[in-house]
């Protein structure tokens, strides 16, 4: 794959402008600033040029030109990524998909929708909800992220435990390849056994194989009711043991989130949460059940309660009203913001088989003890997906800048030794790629490179990411 | 990709025997007969040699040798395939996976199991059911097919409508590549955002990219109760309209099967089914609801009934007892056997967005009228997946052997024009591959070939299949 990238010369710039219109090509530093970072800590990489196409044909024309001229291209959604996937590390052209913001159709007969990649996830969820339908893939950033970015990262969110990731909802993708060719990857069908599944290959490929310009997703009926409870435990082991046991009791909650004590402490300290945090409490589970029948939901809550008691649950806060539910959800939603706004931090996205969560957390604390960092852990316990926020705290700048990498490496080594992998939903992007060799062998890298080379022989698409 | 395949010489045969043991290498015509066909109509291709390895290391050693010597290799599960995927069309070596028949573990804490590919699907389902767990991917051949074959074909079955295909249950695969390298494709986790998803790429690749030697699957809690009903309609349009409306009413049935009148006629005629088939009835839906609460199941049945009435449903047979349920299921399960045992036939596996089913069936009958063939249609209406059994009937041998292909082509052209694709769950294999160009372009073929070439540069794995 060619690393002999060229810069964008005035002639190419003129051609970009003639393709998308002068108003939609940015070259001034002030205009480029927004595209020089995403939400991954404090990394900054300016592109040379940003183009904002509106049609598949424009994307195809841009890519054809860039491919012929060896211009690196970084596709960009809303820039809410947490792994640096949208950073133009080789300069070149950023293709910003923000004008692909139309919901093309919601097909109520087939329970499908076709949507452009620049639609904000929550806008799409609300549009289908108006028709009584559910699109359940709601990452924490649903109010600002694009559904195209969700496809690129194989996104999840709190409801994966019942509803699955975006991988289980995308039926078909329109994709522009590096050379400007346009394909639909599959068919608008719920089943597909017709050759290698290019749809599934594109999901999670982080903009390195093509640029998605339309997305066909499956929808499901909207459940009518939810119940929400917050359970507290004396140890992580007890909390995580309860997680497995809830499933074994035959209940599939719609959310099963873990929060460690330290997370709640941050929300109390920095957001003034009024919460009676008992000394003996170490771990919390936030559990939601949804459905169409209030009696069954109550029955499920009782079943869950019985399980929680078996695991010596100390207290269950049950949200009766919408306001009470919102208050409990707010604790979980505030936690990342509270941690990130009040510290120098790095966020890692680990995932293990769910019963291994206590070992993972214990190991992370032990590693932190040796390296001198604190961590705040929370995440999607039902999926074994733990977000680890590493806090600089009292760590010296020198240690933070040099030794921390070794500590993170140890966290990922532990994750892999527990049967897990580096990322459950944030992707590898730029910041995790140095750790990929902890889990993957030269054979994996050779297969990935072969796939990359098939789709993008000149290596122009989002270079420097994943591997 | 090399088409300069070699035949297996005495020296190689000796090496095969030293790898897997003399008793597990077959070369006599009588022994090879079983491996010369699958359940795809009447095709016969004898391999030169069959080897039956028992370990991943043995598979790796066999593949390494075959790769170095350009011996075509056809992996084989239970031989229940309906698209000719297991037929050794270039002779060479068949690697029969029947000795990979162990359930390695059922992990009740993580609701996962690790299973070898030669385990019969129903044997595995029963083993997890004993622990109160459900593995819901139950193709019609579940009593004889292997779970490894299910992975290779991306299999489905009647419960996909609620539970999804095998694609949503496989977490990780151990795979031997063409050159003998062994990898795990991913991690034993419910989420995965760590590079191109090789697990999903392997699923449905029909043995052309590697040989699976271990499978990690997700399990879910076993629902306690089911209800089953058979609804009859005057037209296909009304039956299929009801399918969409059931979902819109907020109910997700665990099965939603369509059967056309002609299918029931065959079961009455050839299996002595006692059924009062009214003259005005054209289409049937077999609807199952499952869950843990009898009241909710009853409520769901009532909701479904209300929908059915809106679509002028003429009659609903409700199964009260286990025997009655079995009797209704038997109609659906007998249908394929009844058709296939009593006629010269070809089965095609079409899939469209579900609301397009009436147009598909209508078009198939019209095409049959022009070409002189009858057809019996049934399938997974909730998924838009229709199995089309084309019956020779009064068609002349000449027309059957020459003109029929054009008729089948027209069926697939119609399927594609309705937004569908060639196969929902049977795969492309040998018998559908000539039709792939109806839907896919040179760009798709180039991507598929590039992927194939990355995994299997000498083209030894299951040559002549898919494309």
Description:
The structure is a homodimer of 467-residue chains. By secondary structure, chain A is of the alpha+beta class. The first copy, chain A, has a domain at 223-339: Alpha-Beta Plaits (2-Layer Sandwich), CATH 3.30.70.2190. Helix content of chain A is 35%, strand content 20%. Chain A contains 14 helices and 18 strands. The first copy, chain A, has helices at residues 10-20, 29-32, 56-69, 121-129, 147-153, 160-163, 198-202, 236-248, 261-271, 294-310, 322-341, 357-371, 397-417, 442-455; strands at 25-26, 49-51, 73-76, 93-96, 103-107, 112-115, 133-134, 170-176, 182-184, 211-218, 220-221, 225-233, 255-260, 283-291, 315-319, 345-351, 374-380, 385-391. The first copy, chain A, has a seven-stranded antiparallel sheet, with helices on both faces. In chain A, strands 5-6-10-8-9 form a five-stranded antiparallel sheet. In chain A, strands 1-2-4-3 form a four-stranded mixed sheet. In chain A, β17 and β18 (385-391) form a beta hairpin. The longest helix of chain A is centred in the C-terminal third of the chain and has 21 residues, at 397-417. The radius of gyration of chain A is 23 Å and the shape is globular. Chains A and B meet through α7, β11, α8, α10 and α14 of A and α7, β11, α8, α10 and α15 of B.
CATH class of the domain at 223-339 in chain A: Alpha Beta
Largest sheet of chain A: 7 strands, antiparallel
Provide the gyration radius of chain A in Å. Answer: 23 Å
CATH topology of the domain at 223-339 in chain A: Alpha-Beta Plaits
